[in-house]
Amino acid sequence: MTPETSARKPELRVLLCAPRGFCAGVVRAIDAVERALEIYGPPVYVRHEIVHNKYVVEGLKAKGAVFVEELDEIPAGTTAPVIFSAHGVARAVPEDAARRNFFAIDATCPLVTKVHREATVHHKRGREVVLIGHAGHPEVIGTMGQLPEGAVSLVETAEQARLFQPRDPGNLAFTTQTTLSIDDTAEIVAILRERFPAMVAPHKEDICYATTNRQEAVKRVAPAVDAMIVVGAPNSSNSQRLREAAEREGCRHAVLVQRAGEIDWGVFGAIASLGVSAGASAPEILVEEILDAFAARYTLRVETVHTAHEDVFFPLPRQLRSDAAE
């Protein structure tokens, strides 16, 4: 590119959200698959996408990971590791793995495991459990699957919270999916608490630190830009919530994209400012790819907007730690 061509590129102010991208639970889950491949060699079977990101999944496939949706897709008698994804699984899944004599490794995010334990404790204490979350999401399936059928009531919206009829209004507890919208969840909880004042809350917020921090960063940036890009997969709950948060804060064009090739330059080809964030399962290399695509069309002036510092670390599953592997 000649200097003259470069000079003709319009300037674009880019506000880069921080924190963004990988959280500690995602790092742990990806590291678990890579460490298992390193120790045991391929194949390593993974039940469900280890995290909701096609780029990550394809990269692990290339190294020898085999992704399945159900355990019956795994050859009987295999001695290869079988890893459960970061989203968590119903109690029946590890029980089935044990019956099949699989070498199972649980890469469930510890913050999801916390929700599982909370739901189990409430049930043991005779409380009806209300789970605030999205039907069909793997995390919700896993949490509801910790308890007998009918023991958990799923509430997805404020309207459902207004209509919910518990078996015993004085004996309720609630938990939440870890990747929800902070604002939407607060509204649902407020409605339930007003209707059922005795409802028991989690000891500590169930929406995870990474979800909260990424939404707060987006909420800071979105009102100040013409458009917003959230890097993430369409089946990633936390990524979708980031896009919604940007829209709610008044950003006129907020979109979710997986790769630079998905950018609609009819929308993003004539803006003066852009916000960029990434869901908790989106690697930083994809953010860089997006920025490179804009740099080909604009002269970028990049500013990072920090709203929180993250230093959370989760150790690998016990079977994959150095002392256990030795």
TrEMBL record:
<feature type="binding site">
    <location>
        <position position="237"/>
    </location>
    <ligand>
        <name>isopentenyl diphosphate</name>
    </ligand>
</feature>
<feature type="binding site">
    <location>
        <position position="281"/>
    </location>
    <ligand>
        <name>isopentenyl diphosphate</name>
    </ligand>
</feature>
<feature type="binding site">
    <location>
        <position position="236"/>
    </location>
    <ligand>
        <name>dimethylallyl diphosphate</name>
    </ligand>
</feature>
<feature type="binding site">
    <location>
        <position position="281"/>
    </location>
    <ligand>
        <name>(2E)-4-hydroxy-3-methylbut-2-enyl diphosphate</name>
    </ligand>
</feature>
<feature type="binding site">
    <location>
        <position position="208"/>
    </location>
    <ligand>
        <name>[4Fe-4S] cluster</name>
    </ligand>
</feature>
<feature type="binding site">
    <location>
        <position position="137"/>
    </location>
    <ligand>
        <name>dimethylallyl diphosphate</name>
    </ligand>
</feature>
<dbReference type="GO" id="GO:0051745">
    <property type="term" value="F:4-hydroxy-3-methylbut-2-enyl diphosphate reductase activity"/>
</dbReference>
<feature type="binding site">
    <location>
        <position position="238"/>
    </location>
    <ligand>
        <name>(2E)-4-hydroxy-3-methylbut-2-enyl diphosphate</name>
    </ligand>
</feature>
<feature type="binding site">
    <location>
        <position position="137"/>
    </location>
    <ligand>
        <name>isopentenyl diphosphate</name>
    </ligand>
</feature>
<comment type="pathway">
    <text>Isoprenoid biosynthesis; dimethylallyl diphosphate biosynthesis; dimethylallyl diphosphate from (2E)-4-hydroxy-3-methylbutenyl diphosphate: step 1/1.</text>
</comment>
<keyword id="KW-0414">Isoprene biosynthesis</keyword>
<feature type="binding site">
    <location>
        <position position="109"/>
    </location>
    <ligand>
        <name>[4Fe-4S] cluster</name>
    </ligand>
</feature>
<dbReference type="GO" id="GO:0046872">
    <property type="term" value="F:metal ion binding"/>
</dbReference>
<keyword id="KW-0004">4Fe-4S</keyword>
<feature type="binding site">
    <location>
        <position position="178"/>
    </location>
    <ligand>
        <name>(2E)-4-hydroxy-3-methylbut-2-enyl diphosphate</name>
    </ligand>
</feature>
<dbReference type="GO" id="GO:0016114">
    <property type="term" value="P:terpenoid biosynthetic process"/>
</dbReference>
<feature type="binding site">
    <location>
        <position position="23"/>
    </location>
    <ligand>
        <name>[4Fe-4S] cluster</name>
    </ligand>
</feature>
<feature type="binding site">
    <location>
        <position position="87"/>
    </location>
    <ligand>
        <name>(2E)-4-hydroxy-3-methylbut-2-enyl diphosphate</name>
    </ligand>
</feature>
<dbReference type="GO" id="GO:0051539">
    <property type="term" value="F:4 iron, 4 sulfur cluster binding"/>
</dbReference>
<feature type="binding site">
    <location>
        <position position="52"/>
    </location>
    <ligand>
        <name>isopentenyl diphosphate</name>
    </ligand>
</feature>
<dbReference type="GO" id="GO:0050992">
    <property type="term" value="P:dimethylallyl diphosphate biosynthetic process"/>
</dbReference>
<feature type="binding site">
    <location>
        <position position="87"/>
    </location>
    <ligand>
        <name>isopentenyl diphosphate</name>
    </ligand>
</feature>
<feature type="binding site">
    <location>
        <position position="237"/>
    </location>
    <ligand>
        <name>dimethylallyl diphosphate</name>
    </ligand>
</feature>
<feature type="active site" description="Proton donor">
    <location>
        <position position="139"/>
    </location>
</feature>
<feature type="binding site">
    <location>
        <position position="237"/>
    </location>
    <ligand>
        <name>(2E)-4-hydroxy-3-methylbut-2-enyl diphosphate</name>
    </ligand>
</feature>
<comment type="pathway">
    <text>Isoprenoid biosynthesis; isopentenyl diphosphate biosynthesis via DXP pathway; isopentenyl diphosphate from 1-deoxy-D-xylulose 5-phosphate: step 6/6.</text>
</comment>
<feature type="binding site">
    <location>
        <position position="52"/>
    </location>
    <ligand>
        <name>dimethylallyl diphosphate</name>
    </ligand>
</feature>
<keyword id="KW-0408">Iron</keyword>
<keyword id="KW-0411">Iron-sulfur</keyword>
<feature type="binding site">
    <location>
        <position position="87"/>
    </location>
    <ligand>
        <name>dimethylallyl diphosphate</name>
    </ligand>
</feature>
<feature type="binding site">
    <location>
        <position position="238"/>
    </location>
    <ligand>
        <name>isopentenyl diphosphate</name>
    </ligand>
</feature>
<feature type="binding site">
    <location>
        <position position="281"/>
    </location>
    <ligand>
        <name>dimethylallyl diphosphate</name>
    </ligand>
</feature>
<comment type="similarity">
    <text>Belongs to the IspH family.</text>
</comment>
<keyword id="KW-0479">Metal-binding</keyword>
<keyword id="KW-0560">Oxidoreductase</keyword>
<dbReference type="GO" id="GO:0019288">
    <property type="term" value="P:isopentenyl diphosphate biosynthetic process, methylerythritol 4-phosphate pathway"/>
</dbReference>
<feature type="binding site">
    <location>
        <position position="236"/>
    </location>
    <ligand>
        <name>(2E)-4-hydroxy-3-methylbut-2-enyl diphosphate</name>
    </ligand>
</feature>
<dbReference type="Pfam" id="PF02401">
    <property type="entry name" value="LYTB"/>
</dbReference>
<protein>
    <recommendedName>
        <fullName>4-hydroxy-3-methylbut-2-enyl diphosphate reductase</fullName>
        <ecNumber>1.17.7.4</ecNumber>
    </recommendedName>
</protein>
<feature type="binding site">
    <location>
        <position position="236"/>
    </location>
    <ligand>
        <name>isopentenyl diphosphate</name>
    </ligand>
</feature>
<dbReference type="InterPro" id="IPR003451">
    <property type="entry name" value="LytB/IspH"/>
</dbReference>
<comment type="function">
    <text>Catalyzes the conversion of 1-hydroxy-2-methyl-2-(E)-butenyl 4-diphosphate (HMBPP) into a mixture of isopentenyl diphosphate (IPP) and dimethylallyl diphosphate (DMAPP). Acts in the terminal step of the DOXP/MEP pathway for isoprenoid precursor biosynthesis.</text>
</comment>
